Amino acid sequence: MSQRPPPPSRAFRRERGSATLEAAVLAPGLLLLIGLAILGGRITVAGGTIEDAAAAAARQASLARSGEQARRAAAATAEASLAAAHLQCTHTSVTVDTAGFTVPVGQPAQVRVEISCQVPLSDLGLPVFPGARRLEAAAVSPLDSYRTRTP
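Request: output the structure for the sequence above.
Response:
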């Protein structure tokens, strides 16, 4: 004859389902923390990519012979750098300061490039973070002091 196990105690019966309740209470908070980590990672990576694109664009602009060539080279390099990094900006703006091309030869001069990018956050699939975030970066590159320049 087999013996039946003793009936569960009252304390045990009161704790039944408490793990499920704890999971239901903690799950939204954990999901929010995971979403914040993903959001932070997206913004950090996008910011680094935009800084790299600004540096590359400034370098290409500093190699140009004229201010107009510098603007075109910077814009093309910025777009190519962002595309190579697979950063999908909803709106991109590249501003090139070519005032350094008006400085007389023999004096130090520089070219400055500013990039602004609207990074979408809605594609993360998190309903808490809709919309986009505007990220900006700027870089400066010196012009060769002894090379002819035209504005």
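The helical segments are 10-14, 18-62, 67-84.
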